[in-house]
Amino acid sequence: MREPFADAPSALAGARAIMRELADWSTAPWPQLEPIRTAEQYAHALRFFNTARMVADRDPVVVFPFLDELEHRDAIAFHAEQPKSWLTADLRLSPGLADLWPLPEGVMVSVDTTPPFGTPDSEAEDDCTEEELDRMVSVLGPLSLSAFWDCAWRGLPEPKDCGVLLCMNSAFESQHSEPSQGEFGVWVSLGARVAWTPAGQTWIRDCGLPLGEPQQG
User: Does the pLDDT value for residue 214 go beyond 60?
Assistant: First the structure.
């Protein structure tokens, strides 16, 4: 089930309202920030951040010449310890790099390890506090962010796989979020075991939320 919203703050408020009204308990949110994909997103990032994390494939045909250009512009600093299958570096953001967007395939840049979205030690599975999520939304702009809460829906027999997925400038597609500018929605999951049972169908009918495409219920 999905409920759409007009912008990121109202979508966040809507997700919290749904859990407050319909859940017995919920966990801390788990945020996931998508990479900077467009020139518009890069221009926005310049307003709030000085550096970003870059991850690049070890591709000598497409990626290596691009990295050489970044080094020529004195824009990247490589990490001392590198994974075997890709390269990581800190990218110094500046208006002079705007002409490089969109980036070549095999290169991703994100501020997910930069406050308020995270730290250099952040891991993809880290959760956050509600206050931290508020700060993320306050500087989100056109960037794409999703956040997930596990919760127990009041009146359902079990909470397994139950939760709320908040998508901001993104949409839920086949068990994960995809960038989708201007789309803000809250997806409600009842869990595969419950969604199509009589109890699940009754809950859907009585919850008062608009129905979209079923996503695990």
Answer: no
pTM, entire model: 0.87
The span from the CA of 61 to the CA of 171, in Å, is 33
> For residues 51 and 92, is the Cβ–Cβ distance under 8 A?
yes
Per-chain mean pLDDT for the chain:
89
pLDDT score recorded for residue 70: 95
112 burial (CB, 10 Å; 0-12 / 13-18 / 19+) is buried
Q: How far apart are CA 16 and CA 131, in angstroms?
A: 13
Give the position of tokens 């690049």. 56
Q: Strand runs (DSSP E) across 43-175, as ranges?
A: 51-57, 76-78, 86-92, 107-110, 145-153, 163-173
Q: Which of 204, 205, 208, 212 is nearest to 183 (CA)?
A: 212
SS3 call for 115: coil
